[in-house]
Design goal:
298 residues, alpha/beta, Rossmann fold, 2 domains, eight-stranded mixed β-sheet, 12 helices
């Protein structure tokens, strides 16, 4: 009964202190048992609030993996300089022969979980061929749960992990079914990586839509040539602290960009597998992302 009650809790019923604690847990600063224990003593009903925030992926799927509008498969490809020299990703394209504009979908700090795969399918039904790489492939792949995924990802060489994402972007852009125009989106760690890839790949990236991602290093910002639409949660102090400097650097370099802060939202508001999800903000941000990609990649 406790689990059923937890699942039924909505965002407005969860204390902000528990959201903040969950953010620490999500970013690897504590184990699940510590998160649950601290929430339980922090506020009345805190354990149920904490349990409600744990992801429920089966209920969050929006596009079936058997949807007839798409073709999906897992692919392996070379990744020189990465964590193992080889990468694996979830490649989803619209039904048809293409060529298609392409979008790299970069996961959070826990590998290629079902939510990220669903985002790739959402891209495909919008007309894009999407690749969602699994940064955990060199460590055996996404293990089926976020706790172990987070541990595996933190144990990888982080520089080589970024190289694996870089090679994934290059593989996708050069794919035989690609029209050669590359967009990138990503969430949390993937949002930060989206900013990094836009700076690292320069003119090879036409459009980038990072979600609550830390800014690219200031000295690299002049290399960004992509049109950028960045999405931020209102209640996300750590990430938002990097925004003013990023905005100033983008303005100074003459970049084309928009930054949107969504009122009343938490870090992770686009992820519809937990109560941090806010439907209105998620839908609006996705409309803006798709409009960017359609304008720049088609």
């Amino acid at each position: 009964m406790a689990d059923d009650h937890a699942a039924a809790l909505t965002q407005i019923e969860i204390d902000q202190r528990v959201f903040d604690l969950y953010d620490e847990y999500c970013h690897g600063k504590m184990e699940r048992r510590d998160f649950l224990a601290k929430a339980a003593v922090m506020v009345a009903g805190g354990l149920a609030m904490a349990q409600a925030l744990l992801p429920r992926y089966a209920a969050a799927q929006t596009v079936s993996f058997t949807d007839e509008r798409i073709k999906a498969r897992y692919v392996n490809y070379p990744s020189p300089g990465g964590n193992s020299g080889t990468m694996r990703g979830y490649l989803v394209q619209p039904a048809g022969t293409g060529p298609f504009p392409v979008v790299l979908v970069v996961h959070e700090n826990r590998g290629l979980n079902p939510y990220i795969e669903d985002v790739a399918r959402r891209c495909a039904i919008a007309g894009f061929m999407a690749l969602a790489p699994d940064g955990l492939f060199p460590a055996g792949g996404y293990p089926g749960n976020d706790d172990d995924g987070r541990t595996l990802q933190s144990g990888l060489d982080q520089g080589k992990l970024r190289v694996d994402m870089l090679n994934s972007a290059k593989f996708l852009k050069a794919h035989a079914t690609s029209n050669g125009k590359l967009g990138i989106t990503g969430f949390c760690w993937g949002g930060s990586t989206t900013n990094w890839l836009a700076a690292t790949l320069g003119g090879e990236v036409k459009a980038a839509a990072p979600y609550y991602g830390a800014a690219a290093a200031t000295e690299t910002v002049p290399a960004i040539r992509a049109a950028l639409v960045a999405h931020y949660a209102e209640n996300d102090a750590g990430i938002n602290g990097t925004r003013p400097g990023y905005e100033a650097a983008l303005k100074a370099s003459g970049a084309r960009f928009d930054m949107h802060v969504y009122p009343g939202t938490q870090h992770g508001f686009h992820n519809n597998s937990t109560p941090r999800y806010q439907e209105a903000a998620a839908n609006l941000s996705w409309q803006r992302t798709m409009a960017l990609f359609k304008a720049e990649l088609a």
